[in-house]
Amino acid sequence: MDTPPDEGIDLNEDIEVIELDDQLQDVADQLEDGLEDLGMEDDEDDGEAAIGAQVRPDRDDAHIIFSKHTGPVYCVKIDPVTCSMGVSGGEDDKAFVWRLTDGEVLMQCSGHKDSVTCAAFSHDSIYVATGDMAGMVKVWKIDTKQEVWSFECSDLEWLEWHPESHILMVGTTEGDMWLWKIPGGSTKTFQGHGCASNVGKIMPDGKRACVGYEDGVVKIWDLKAASAVHTMSGHEAHEASVTSVDCHPDNVLVMTGSVDVTSKLINSNTGKAVVTFNCKIPEVDKDQENSVEAVGFSNIQPLAATGTLTGVLCIWDIPKQVARQQCKHEAGIVRLKWDSSLPLVYTCSLDGIVQLWDARSGKSEAQWVGHQAEILDFDISRDGAHLVTGSGDQTARLFSLQSPPPDR
Predict the structure, then answer these.
(1) How far apart are CA 132 and CA 51, in angstroms?
(2) Sign of dihedral through CA atoms 291, 51, 212, 127?
(3) Cis? peptide before 406, omega within 30° of 0
(4) Which residues does residue 172 pair with via DSSP β-bridges, in sequence order?
(5) Which among 185, 242, 260, 296 has the fewest CB atoms less than 10 Å away?
(6) Closest by CA position to 210, among listed 199, 220, 222
């Protein structure tokens, strides 16, 4: 195994800006106790694809095409236990739970009155939560196919299950966050500071969450105390809206991406930015709009990745704080995910393509095509067998990762 991510890097040192251009169940119980303590009981022209543009692939690698939606599919997830179910939500105000093997609808999550932009399974696949843009959040029990809880907050930005418990957390455009114990509905609120809570992720310890805001501020929240333990503002914050966040398995480092086209590594224990990666590449970006749209840590090596709207995937060496690889796409990157056991990165982009990249060589190892519009979200099954995508072409597609596409 390579050097652990914190070796060779002083997590308390001053911020250094790295120019990309220059370098070619105990925790859950404690949280629930905390709820009870509060009295809560049970193109350049060069091929850049515009959003909404139609693409015409020369083949379709999908094994299953889910076509029950009547509008763009904004969110998709695969259940983490059986890896046999998917959930998708779309502009048609609907969410569906469906079987991956044949695309059969197992349950329709009805009652939403706006686009369903968030959907996720609980850690044990007992529940599925769906949320729409207007702030309606619903939770359904999979085995009974019944709605067991709902709540209406302000316009929704993100939704996240606790990694070990039936606790659900969301962030809103007003900046406030909500945390509920499901299905009882015991509630905690986390007061914002007047701007949208754009993205959030509960950290691996289950005790804290990292949240990025529209004004560039990043906060580390204590979930039991419902208070911010660290706030990165001013010169330590991003200069523009935070778009993405990830948490390292070591439970110390967090990574953020922003419209300012930078990514920050932050020590969550001190609340200090360790390094700022500048993801701008003048010869690629030129006059195009750009931002860091996706970030992620490798689980097995001291590497991190950033993906930009101008289509550059960058692999970063964390201990050395240098860029190892730059992988150019033909269109903007929407999401990225690391393989759980290999130094490989999956990306999806606005040209409707999913690609697999080798982080060591920077080479594209495979592509999966079939969508006729941009991909808006994707997920990989925990067993590594399948990949599900949601697209502006009104479909969700399932691709097999065990039978490679023709060009692999």
Answers:
(1) 21
(2) negative
(3) no
(4) 156
(5) 185
(6) 220
Angle at the Cα of 216 (from 210 to 220), degrees rounded to 5? 20
For 121-137, write each residue's pLDDT tens digit: 999 999 999 999 999 99
* Tens-place pLDDT, residues 82-132: 999 999 999 999 999 999 999 999 999 999 999 999 999 999 999 999 999
Quote the tokens at residue 194.
Answer: 């007047």
Note the residue count of the chain. 408
- Phi first, then psi, for residue 302 (nearest 5°) are -75, 60
The amino acid present at 264, given as its one-letter code, is K
Task: Quickly count: other Cβ atoms within 10 Å of residue 282's Cβ.
Answer: 7
**CA 102 to the chain's CA centroid:** 26
Cα-based angle 228, 75, 266 (whole degrees, multiple of 5): 30
**Confidence grade of residue 4 (pLDDT, cut at 50, 70, 90):** very low
Q: Are 107 and 96 in contact (CB under 8 A)?
A: yes
What CA–CA distance (Å, rounded) separates 356 from 348?
9
Read off the pLDDT of residues 164-177 as tens digits, 9 standing for 90 and up: 999 999 999 999 99
Global pTM exceeds 0.85:
yes
- Give the 3-state secondary structure of the chain: CCCCCCCCCCCCCCCEEEEHHHCCCHHHHHHHHHHHHCCCCCCCCCCCCCCCCCCCCCCCCCCEEECCCCCCEEEEEECCCCCCEEEEEECCCCEEEEECCCCCEEEEECCCCCCEEEEEECCCCCEEEEEECCCEEEEEECCCCEEEEEEECCCEEEEEECCCCCEEEEEECCCCEEEEECCCCEEEEECCCCCCEEEEEECCCCCEEEEEECCCCEEEEECCCCEEEEEECHHHCCCCCEEEEEECCCCCEEEEEECCCEEEEEECCCCEEEEEEECCCHHHHCCCCCCEEEEEECCCCCEEEEEECCCEEEEEECCCCEEEEEEECCCCEEEEEECCCCCEEEEEECCCCEEEEECCCCCEEEEECCCCCCEEEEEECCCCCEEEEEECCCCEEEEECCCCCCCC
Token pair of 331 as six digits: 């269109």
